[in-house]
Amino acid sequence: MKLSLIVPCYNEAENVEAFQNAVIAAFSGCGYDYEIVFVDDGSGDATFHNLKKLHAAQACPVKVIRFSRNFGKEAALYAGLQHASGEYLSLIDADLQQRPEIVREMVEILDRQPEYDIVAAYQDRRGEGKILSAFKKCFYSVINCLSKVKLRPDASDFRTFRRSVAESLLSLGEYHRFSKGIFAWVGYSTCFLPYTAQARAAGTSKWNFRKLMNYALEGIIGFSTAPLRLATYLGCCTALAAMIYLVVVVLQKLIAGIDIPGYATIIVLILFLGGMQLLCIGIIGEYVGKIFEQSKDRPIYIAKEVLDYKEE
Ligand code: UDP
Ligand code: MG
Hints:
This protein has ten helices and eight strands. Uridine-5'-diphosphate binds next to strand 1 and helix 3.
């Protein structure tokens, strides 16, 4: 098998068949074999029903993995990587925002240029609002400043890569998966290819601002320990400020004879220090929580059903 297309699907009932047709059209006459690995991420609609039909028809080799509940896109990609048998593997969304024709182009690049291991698509024009794009820009500058791995702001997880890269991705068994960071962490030489994201074929995006915010925090905590150091810096700065204030108060009393203004200062300091202590405990708590979850060593996903096909 030359190519595996790994497709996470969450409530994509209206899209899966159109997606398969688009793939068949895009790869007609390509001269190599390919398979589609659909991962149904616990959809609540007819996604699995429709995938079953595609699997029964086998218009092209189709594998279906069905999760026991919604585990998230990252888990779906992991499951897809585990079940794909291609020499090249491609991660692509089910909603046709990312065209399968581009995957064909990516395969040609990998064939022609053995020096590249990954071809990653990045969006040349983003059709999103100003606030969201400012938020994303801010996130990338923070994570690139805090973390050793460097992320490219406009790159998505729409990628095609060699099997060796897939093996490396699978060797990172962390429970909280942040694929942009994982790709940056495993390295390999990457060729960046511009693409324009299409409008969603049907259905709605599964992302909202709260989910994006949580995803951003996961990314920072998963790939940097710099926030922990913040506590040390904050502690040092406060101690220094307290020393300076002590000298000022003593001088005021000795030289100018001013009485020390008590009440307001104490209230402000208690609130300030209390707030900072809670902030630091919160940061430590985030990391302890991650350690706790990882230490339970739970599987990244649970597959309820796997529909394979027999290779002739
Ligand atoms: N997806 C998934 N599990 C989820 C959320 C999304 O498998 O919990 C899939 C979804 O079906 C789609 C892809 O991930 O194929 C990208 O999702 P979406 O289109 O909502 O994201 P966007 O394109 O808006 O970034
Ligand atoms: Mg989409």
